[in-house]
Amino acid sequence: MRSRVLILVAAVVLGLVAAFAAGRYLDSARRQVEAGTQPVEILVAAKPIAPGVSAEQALKDGSIVKKSIARQYVADEAVSSFSTIDGRVSAVDLTVGEQVTQGDFQYSSDAGAAYSVPEGLLAVSVKDDAVVGVSRMLKPGDFVTVVGTFEVDTKDGTTSVSKIVVPRARVLAVDQNLTAVQQETNAGTPSRSGSLMNSGKTESQTLEVNTVTLAVTPPDVERIVLADDAGKLRLALISKSDVEPVSTRGAWLKDIVR
Description:
The structure is a single chain. The chain has six helices and twelve strands. By secondary structure, the chain is an alpha+beta fold. It has two domains: 39-114, Type Iii Antifreeze Protein Isoform Hplc 12, CATH 3.90.1210.10; 119-256, no CATH class. The termini are far apart. The model is unreliable at 176-207 (pLDDT under 50).
């Protein structure tokens, strides 16, 4: 009789343990299902996006919008905030309804020049320093005004003039690559490695030349190249809210010091 009672008690205990475990499992499964159905806001392509389109332009023309999707259907590395891709360009084709992931938009230098240059535009680089490049605060995706300063002849003699060369140009890349520059080195001058140069010979030295690469129309490429050769260029950062280019008559030194 006593053994039957023990067996009955053990069966009841085991049943309670099994019921508790089953309840925990079902509760966990329910929470997982509920978590998977919770809506998450992510960026989605509302229009087809070709490679080379800036994130700023895609957002501006409505090619990228925010959409709520059940968490269980959100792709890995899906982007939920525009700030994640700000200053980047599309590196792949995106179809309507496709979720935007971190790998879809890259910086110009990572995506490659072919993907960075919008259709119909050309890429041209200008030398950059702390003054030309707005204290090196420029980044891909910014817009700048290209200003040139020249010496021109007038009936009263030679004077300086500053004029807007290109009112609005998009920054494709701010490059820190090294560019080879040929320089003559006199005999007895230490090289970068500390050794002495042979008399009468030249050495190819690699000097750091910073550049800003801009996306502009073919006529603007001609204007920039000519202005860079004939004078000095400077870049002026344009506010994100300014979209209309301005036109000026230029600033003449004779008018300033009059």
